[in-house]
Every structure is written in C-alpha cells, then in structure tokens.
Design goal:
Length: 384
C-alpha cells in the first residue's frame, strides 16, 4: 500500500472539478453531523502529535451543512439530535449501518480527519476509509484511529504523520495569489499556493530532514532536504536512497525518511517512480478474497491487509472482480445504479458499503465540500 503518491508541491496532484449537486435525502441512509460524536475517558486524550492519497488499493497516492431532519423515506431523527438513521426493514441498503453507536461515529470522525487533512495525498478516500476500517487495518496509520480532532487545525494528523495541508492561517494573504511561496519557520517547511488544496506544512524534524527553500522548476517551494547530493533527472520522479524517498532538485534530494511514518521506500520498476509503502504483514499471492465478514487483500507489492467490514455494518461479498465490503441490500461499486458521491453545500455524500452517507464537513472543522473526478470514479471530500 503506497503511503505517498507525490509531494503536494510537485507534479501528480489530482485535478479537481468543483460542483454542487442539488439533491434530496431520498438515497441517504445516514447523516453524520454536529453533536453526534462523544468519547469519554482516555480515548479522547488530545496528546496525539500525521501518508499522501489514492482512491484505490496499491495505487499511487494521493473526501454541508443545512440539511434538515426528515421523516420521509424511512429516515428518523435519533434521540440526542442530529443523526439520521434508516428505520427500514433489515436488508434495505443502509439499514445495517450501526449509525447510532459511538464507535461508528468515531470511525467516521477519524476517517474524515485522516483523509481530508491531506486529501489528494492520503492513500484512500473517505468512503473506503470508513467501509474498510482502513485506519485500524493499516498499522502504520493506526495512530490516526485513536484521537478525534474536530478543531479544524489537523493537529492530530500532523502529530501522527508529520505533514498536513496548509490552512488559511498558515498562509495569510498568500492563498489568493497565483504563485507558490515557500518558507521555513525553524525546521517547519510551509508552502502556500494559489489553491489552498495544494499548500503544505511539513515537520522536517519528524520526517528526519532539514527545511530548505528551492525551485521546483517554476516556483519557490519549501521542502525537507533529505539527501545532501543527487544527480537524477529533475523531472519530479521519486527515488530511494536507503529508506529515504526523494526527488532531485538543484543537486539536492527533497522528500522524507519513510521510516518516520513506519513505511519502506520501494520502486516497483513500472516507471511510476518510488514511494513510501506502509509496513504490513507479507503475502505471496496477489488477490482479494473473503475471510468470514472480512476482506483479505494481498497487494502487488506483497503486503497483506485485513479489512473488517463489520465495523461499518457490512460483510464481505465476492464477485468476478474479487471481494468487497458491502452492506445488506446494497449494490457493489461496479453495478449499474450503485451509490454515487456528490456535494450539497457543506455536506459530502459518500458511499459506505454501497449505502449513501451524508457527512456534515463543518462538524469536523472543515468549511465546505468539494468534488474530485478521476479515472477510478468521483469522490466527495471536505475542504478548508
């Protein structure tokens, strides 16, 4: 499982198309919003101190308010406020989602934080993160599964992974400009761009590098200097030096030490360049199969992942394409009429086990929903 697709400051970031889809709640089984999530005791400890994104397994890496409760379509308002559950009979798509439990709400909250604090960089989208219980299934990012952070600062993600997207407060007066601007504050590398989505903050202490400002060919950006000298072509391609992932610019290698995020630097040799691959148990046969209600994945890089479908109310279902986590009565992603994602103001309508789930981005410290279209599908996410 690749931990990184590219740095936000380089090439390869997703092309975004911002759209707002006006739609009712008829297809939504769950609405997650403000006031739904509470954790008592040590699990809510904020002492947490933050890979980059894809929307598929073992692929290069890279999820609004105003919705009113309704009793139409089998939806009911849960006591305690804000959370809509599907009251339809068992077997109706979405009816098996454990929407009223604090554990499911924690799953949603931690996935929203993990994916959207580095969207376009984190290895999976919000839907897959929730559906597959991805954070607990991936030891290298398990630190993201323990603390809920709705502050809008991405502090928990940053502490765990050592980088995050830039916030408006990181780049006052810069985000409206067309050119990137990079600067170092101590050993913190901050790059601000005309599109906030691609700005970044990197803790070079955490990533075992030294902050430096350099040109990426067209603009000045700040990065972590990780390899003192290099002679590779300056084309944005990533390489490994031991366990350090770097791209060469001006004879210096910028990137990160994969060890800092519990990953291993590898080049698959297919022309895509090197990446940090999360450390995981090994396997020998590339496939995806069912093991009870779990999906067992063996990636092309020989890494084994066990996705616990039941945490989000699903089970493992096999078809010609392999195995997927799917809720009772729901259609697999490949089926005609399957769940699709969209934005409605600040609400991200995502698909959990084939059921539509509406997530209020503002409840987790974000401001709006945005929409991404790429070859593998269309995905809604939260944006500052």
């Amino acid at each position: 499982m690749k931990a990184k697709r590219s740095t936000r400051n380089g090439a390869g970031a997703f092309a975004l198309a911002t759209v707002v889809v006006v739609a009712g709640l008829g297809a939504c089984n769950v609405v997650v919003g403000a006031g739904d999530y509470k954790v008592e005791g040590p699990e809510n400890d904020a002492s947490m101190t933050h890979p980059e994104a894809s929307n598929g397994d073992d692929a290069p890496v890279g999820d609004d308010g105003g919705m009113l409760p309704t009793n139409d379509g089998g939806h009911g308002l849960r006591d305690g406020g804000g959370f809509l559950g599907n009251d339809a009979a068992a077997g109706t798509c979405g009816s098996t989602i454990p929407s009223s439990t604090s554990d499911f709400q924690k799953l949603v909250a931690t996935c929203v934080e993990a994916v959207n604090c580095d969207y376009g960089v984190f290895p999976v989208n919000v839907s897959d993160c929730i559906t597959k219980n991805y954070l607990q299934a991936t030891p290298s990012v398990a630190c993201l599964s323990t603390t809920v952070d709705t502050s809008g600062t991405c502090a928990a993600y940053y502490g765990c992974q050592g980088d995050r997207t830039a916030l408006p407060s990181d780049c006052p007066g810069v985000l409206s400009t067309a050119d990137a601007t990079g600067f170092c504050t101590g050993n913190i590398a901050t790059t601000c761009t005309g599109d906030m989505f691609y700005g970044s903050v990197q803790n070079c202490d955490k990533l075992n590098g030294t902050c430096a400002v350099h040109s990426n060919g067209t603009e000045d950006v700040a990065d972590c200097k990780i390899v003192p000298t290099c002679s590779d072509p300056e084309d944005g391609t990533y390489h490994c030096s031991g366990n350090k992932l770097y791209t060469c610019s001006g004879g210096v290698g910028y990137g990160k030490d994969c060890s800092a995020i519990d990953a291993t630097c590898m080049d698959p040799g297919d022309g895509s360049g090197a990446a940090c691959y999360f450390n995981a148990p090994t396997c020998s046969k590339t496939d995806v199969t069912c093991n009870g209600t779990d999906v067992n994945l063996c990636t092309t890089s020989g890494q084994a992942f066990d996705y616990e479908c039941s945490r989000s109310g699903g089970s493992c279902e096999e078809d010609d394409a392999g195995a997927v986590c799917l809720g009772a009565g729901c259609l697999p992603p490949s089926a005609t009429g399957a769940c699709t994602e969209s934005c409605n103001g600040a609400t991200a309508n995502v698909c959990v086990g084939g059921a539509s789930v509406a997530i209020d981005c503002t409840a987790y410290g974000f401001t709006t929903c945005d929409f991404e279209v790429e070859n593998s599908g269309s995905f809604a996410f939260c944006l500052f």
